[in-house]
Amino acid sequence: xxxxxxxxxxxxxxxxxAVPFKFRSSKGTPLHVCTTFISLLRRAVNATSADCxxxxxxxxEKTSNNLLSDSYKANRKKDYSQDEDSPFxxxxxxxxxxxxxNVCWLEKPGIEADDLIASLTCQFLKESAERxxxxxxxxxxxxxxxxxxxxxIQLKAKxxxxxxxxxxxxxxxxxxxxxxxxxxxxVGDKVDNIVGIPGIGWKRAQEILDGKRVRDLSDExxxxxxxxxxxxxxxxxxxxxxxFSEVGDLLRKSNREVFEALDN
Length: 264
Known about the structure:
Helices cover 40% and strands 13% of the residues. The chain is α/β, with parallel strands linked by helices. The two termini are 33 Å apart.
């Protein structure tokens, strides 16, 4: 067991829910979202040649970051009660499919999935310097974890994918991984509704950190920077005790076998 794939479950869930087709089993079980989710999972395993895999989901309860800031992720839709269908209607089916395929999945009330993934990554790498962990997600917060042993995989359309390593982040995106948390604390993050320091973009923030510019901060801006650091920095110290599952059944068992198991 030398290569681990950690999957941002909600990232795959929303990708799967966006498929333009729908179908049900003979007994009426909706299978299009689950089928796409498992297909994405297989693609990621094959692309990374992973030996083992764990899927991590966000719990529905508020997390420690919500306690730090009421506005954290407040821009995201939370109430799907008026929708005819929602991604979360399909989660029980997806989890049942993962159980059938012996794929480990994890969800902890009050804990961000990002922090679970960060801690699992560090836990896995402690065993051996030869190990490599891939994180399947489009969440840029994971950039702070990228190293020689940690890479990010982003699945694209038409079977394409992108591997983000230290070279990609520095040469293509112009990011310094060691400075990422500080840079993002200055700039903020619209996706998570984190407000940055007014008038500061990535270029100016980099110049400030490199000592090429000086920016005097008010007391409120100093407090904002510290709050942003706490919201953005991932927790690698959680004691989870999760076992990583081998990928054998995921690659061996067909969709038909999964469908039949879900319909029983």
